[in-house]
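Ticket 4471: requesting a sanity check on a complex prediction with nicotinamide-adenine-dinucleotide. Repro inputs:
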Amino acid sequence: MTTTGRLRGRTALVTGGSRGIGRAVSRRLAGDGALVAVHYGHDHTAAERTVKEIEGDGGRAFAVHAELGVHGDAAALWAAFDRELAAQDAPPGLDILVNNAGITLPRAIQQVAEDDYDRVFAVNTKAPFFITQRALERLRDGGRIVNVSSAATRIAYPAIVAYAMTKAALDHLTLSLAQQLGPRGITVNTVAPGFTETEINPTLRDPQVRQALAGASVFDRLGAPADIADVVAFLACDDARWVTGQWIDATGGVHLGL
Ligand code: NAD
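Returned structure tokens:
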């Protein structure tokens, strides 16, 4: 992996960093020189694999465990982060937070049970809210927050209505915090992926579904995790210092229509 060095000396935390888009973001930020905390929930093996991949590429990373969507998850995450960071002999504090972890709920309103609703909001909305709240004590001036939302917040998408609502709330977190944190030189932005090839969407295993979703992009392909990671890495670096409160479409032009 190419190392630009543009994030050398920075510390980043990527939630859900062990696989999919989060794994690609972790690898890209580390490839740019950051020390990356790869957060994970259940998948310890995947997190360790991602850390090893980063180290194999000459980067620096460590795994941080916290199950999201449970009471006190943000406190647990930051306690683990502080502990592991100290174990790396790295200075305390944070430069880049990527709120990426998320789950989907592919159901129309008639099929959404109250427990499912609570769960998807707990993981996709409440967790990043309180993770960000506690990140503020650690974020250095000039820091970066990038929220991974979804293109589904700007189009009607009844088949995933509750999921889209969780991400629409996250979009607002970007706006309000961008204003609040501006005086500290901290930027806050959203990256909104379209159909991206990860394990979140099991229907992508069906060739017909793949073809249909790929056709939604003007490039006639699904997004790759690296397509999203490169946008996140740009927003995390100094080149994006004048960009804040933005919602960046990373869908391969799905919004352009037929
Ligand atoms: P993924 O399922 O591969 O990754 C999700 C990550 O979140 C995993 O690392 C998972 O372990 C973590 N996670 C989920 N629930 C958790 C919990 N309770 N506790 C701790 N960690 C948890 O899917 P992905 O596509 O890489 O998703 C990354 C983000 O991108 C998500 O927020 C998703 O909503 C968003 N997104 C994805 C697509 C897509 O098509 N793949 C499109 C739009 C938005």
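Notes from triage: The pocket of nicotinamide-adenine-dinucleotide is lined by residues 16, 18-22, 40-41, 43, 67-69, 100-103, 123, 148, 150, 193, 195-196, 198-201 (CB under 6 Å). Leaving this open until the requester confirms.
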